[in-house]
Specification:
With 224 residues, the protein is an alpha+beta fold. The chain is built from one helix and twelve strands; from the N terminus they run E-E-H-E-E-E-E-E-E-E-E-E-E. It folds into two domains: 54 residues, no CATH class; 144 residues, lipopolysaccharide transport protein A fold, CATH 2.60.450.10. It has a ten-stranded mixed β-sheet, with no helix packed on it. A hairpin with a 2-residue loop joins strand 3 and strand 4. The termini are far apart.
Length: 224
């Protein structure tokens, strides 16, 4: 029998012919390739699971960031009252009575927002010496300070009048001051300027800048 003319018989699934003319087992190579394919798929599955997990954490973190909690809501007022009355004290004595159309109180920061204010200022004998009105204000009850805003008008017992857009009032020192434009009317005198420091009775007034007007009595008025 001519062996050269006969086809070689071997299981195709078990062997293959290399270019060098030698036979090597095929099944081992297939198994290796199969195992590599399985490992590759496992790696990709792990990668995808990792991406999904990260996306889930990110969405949870985003959701928790977007949700506000009561502990973080420091801007929420402690109370809101319509038709309120507030008293300021100095060593147990009433110095100021404030009537407001509405107040919004923030207890932790000693701040009360007040709207449409009507204010009476008392002297040591309990007599009203000065009155004021304004559109709004901030009241610091613990420190006895007032910040008035919008159409501020102050009238004293001798009918002196101060008009301005904003005013800072310290009820403990009886001092008032502002950086805004002021108009002061005392009897026949009308003066204007920018910035002012004065006592609450408007007996001693200091205009800071750009004073103008008609003045007949200058003993209570000074400019730096």
């Amino acid at each position: 029998m001519d062996l050269a003319s006969q086809p070689l018989a071997y299981p195709a699934s078990e062997y293959y012919l290399t270019f060098s003319g030698y036979f090597q087992p095929l099944s081992a190579d297939i198994r290796n390739k199969s195992e590599m394919s399985v490992m590759s798929r496992q790696v990709w599955i792990l990668v995808l699971l990792g991406i999904v997990a990260l996306a889930g954490c990110s969405s949870k973190q985003s959701a928790s960031t977007d949700q506000s909690t009561p502990a973080d809501s420091t801007s929420l007022p402690d109370s809101e009252v319509s038709g309120a009355k507030i008293y300021l004290y100095d060593r147990g004595q009433v110095t100021t009575e404030i009537v407001a159309e509405k107040i919004v109180k923030f207890q932790s920061i000693d701040s009360t927002m007040a709207y449409t204010l009507d204010i009476d200022i008392y002297d040591s004998t309990g007599q009203v010496t000065t009155q004021a009105i304004s559109d709004s204000g901030i009241i610091r009850e613990n420190s006895g300070k007032l910040y008035l805003f919008g159409n501020v008008v102050v009238i004293t017992e001798d009918k002196s009048k101060l008009e301005t857009d904003s005013l800072y009032w310290d009820s403990k020192t009886n001092k008032i001051q502002t950086d805004a434009f002021v108009k002061i009317t005392k009897d026949e005198d009308v003066i204007t300027g920018w910035g002012m420091e004065a006592d609450q009775r408007l007996n001693r007034i200091r205009i800071l800048n750009q004073v103008s007007g008609t003045i007949t009595d200058t003993k209570n008025l000074s400019e730096p």
